[in-house]
């Protein structure tokens, strides 16, 4: 989903006219549904192959997931965010990126910092398993999962002398479309 959001925002910045006039209205909903379905299929595949005793093919399933993550989703997300960042920095009419773009960049940054080590460790488990390192990677992945709401609230309340509103108000500030 982070990759889809990053690509969508990048396309919206690069081709705003097309996005406003010609982009199908249900494209985001359809893409999110397809990505959730893909995630469910892959999670079910991992459960069926790796957890239900078909372990001889487990390495192929996990290797395929690592390949999808490292060779498709992560590079696409990074490239689209770099393009987005460069385009917003070069834009003369906008001095500060919008809050939503800030949230996306921060979320991707923390995903790369805290979420990717678990995928790397799963891939390295094919060669050597170190229990302590795997547990640290799980802890980092858990931290990555819980940091997003903190990012939303902090970015939503940024620029205020102190946080006076509710979490709901901060979230509305982040996701409002100007």
From TrEMBL:
Protein topology in the membrane = Multi-pass membrane protein
Give the main location.
Answer: membrane
Q: Is Transmembrane one of the keywords?
A: yes
Q: Which PROSITE patterns match?
A: G_PROTEIN_RECEP_F1_2 (PS50262)
Q: Ranges for the G-protein coupled receptors family 1 profile domain?
A: 1-152
Subcellular localization = Membrane
Q: What is this protein called?
A: Proto-oncogene Mas
Q: Which organism is it from?
A: Leptosomus discolor
